[in-house]
Design a protein that fits this description.
A 5-stranded parallel sheet has the order 2-3-1-4-5, with helices on both faces. Helix content is 50%, strand content 12%. The chain is built from 9 helices and 5 strands; from the N terminus they run αβαβαααβαβααβα. With 208 residues, the protein is α/β, with parallel strands linked by helices. Bound molecules: shikimate-3-phosphate. The site of shikimate-3-phosphate has 10 residues, from loops.
Length: 208
């Protein structure tokens, strides 16, 4: 991974992703929470904040793949091809799900893989961060390091991925619609959805 990418990931959330929030209530689930959805849906940004609120560790599956391969995702695509990246992605997520419960931000293609999806369904709680095309487009336009978006018109590619992938994402345990709202607002929605799922009051909903 390049230093720039490292710092971009590190800067996209609260100061420390593994620190628990002082005000967070200790009702974190006993399974990992796995955030799924298209590029630009906010999985890393929301994942870090959610982890902070719930006092759970955070891990970005893409960053783990980069660490394991000792190169950036762009380089993996360029040098070894998408299939090699997908194999690494599947293995890394399987390993993460064996670990202690955490918040896992996945890359946009991860939950489309049937094996990964089954693994998440069995060992985690999946949350689809669902954003509309214009929001996704606006967010992905801020960074130019996503290999799949370099091959043509970003809007058309995202439209195609929406058509191809939404049926898979729809199999997530929870769906949270996100718009052009603050990350804190989205985190509260996720906490609410998790609480509904668990049949308990929202965790950490006392603080923005
Ligand atoms: C991909 C999404 C990316 C990354 C890779 C492939 C995809 O992650 O895993 O570029 O297939 O949608 P983000 O969703 O975090 O951008």
């Amino acid at each position: 991974m390049t230093g720039q990418e490292n710092s971009e990931r590190a800067d996209s959330g609260p100061e420390s992703s593994t620190e628990s929030s002082p005000g967070s209530s200790n009702v974190a689930p006993d399974r990992s929470i796995v955030l799924v959805g298209l590029m630009g849906a906010g999985k890393t940004c929301i994942g870090k904040r959610l982890a902070h609120k719930l006092g759970m560790p955070f891990v970005d599956a893409d960053a783990e793949i980069e660490t394991a391969a000792n190169c950036s995702i762009e380089e993996i695509f360029d040098r070894f091809g998408e299939q090699a990246f997908r194999d690494g992605e599947r293995k890394v997520i399987a390993r993460l799900l064996e670990d202690t419960p955490r918040i896992v931000a996945t890359g946009g293609g991860a939950f489309v893989n049937p094996e990964t999806r089954k693994n998440v369904q069995e060992n985690g709680i999946s949350v689809w961060l669902k954003a509309d095309l214009d929001v996704l487009l606006q967010r992905v336009s801020r960074r130019g390091n996503r290999p799949l978006l370099k091959t043509g018109n970003k809007r058309q590619i995202l439209e195609r991925l929406i058509a191809e992938r939404y049926p898979s994402y729809a199999k997530a345990d929870l769906t949270v619609e996100t718009g052009d709202e603050s990350p804190d607002r989205t985190v509260l929605k996720v906490l609410g959805a998790l609480a509904d799922h668990a049949g308990s009051p929202p965790a950490g909903s006392d603080a923005e």
